[in-house]
Amino acid sequence: MTPTYDGGVARSQKGNLRFKGPERLSLDLAQALELPASAVCNELGQYPCLGVHGVALGGVDPYQHSVYETAPVTGAATPLAVERTVLSACNARIALDVNAPSSAVVFKDVTLTGGKLQDAASPAVATALTSLVRRAWLRDPTQEERDTLVQLARDVEATGTPNPGIAWMQAACLAVFSSAEAVFY
Length: 185
Prior knowledge:
Strand order of the largest sheet: 1-2
Radius of gyration: 18 Å
Largest sheet: 2 strands, antiparallel
Number of strands: 4
Order of helices and strands: HEEHHEEHHHH
Helix content: 40-55%
Distance between the termini: 24 Å
Number of domains: 1
Structural class: mainly alpha
């Protein structure tokens, strides 16, 4: 039987979504954001998040904490650990893109003037958002998704934060890479 497509989100035939877990999440972030695995997330600049948050992210720790099997459900700290890991990876990529614009990977050609996006509706911003979504979701963003992320830039600027362009990059990257579509497989 061939499934029909209604133009919406494709329904999984198996309906078996799985949380990526610490290793897959970390390696997917490293690959998608073109970072060395060691640069994805380090607590206090020293300890890999994979080790610090490994159990919270669904991993095991048989040697130090006698956790031999993964938990059947994610814990209360899992969303925080995911956001911490994703935000750290996003910050690393943004710092590289902003400090070396000629070799930028995600936010290439996005111009900041006085800490603000020069034009949130520019083709460069649209290209950056498409690149960001492709890297996380392995598909192009819909127009509505792109418009929402552009509106996020305006919303961030309206808060009065000192560097709204950077804050928008952080918020957009975090929103995309911590979404269910990026965290589950």
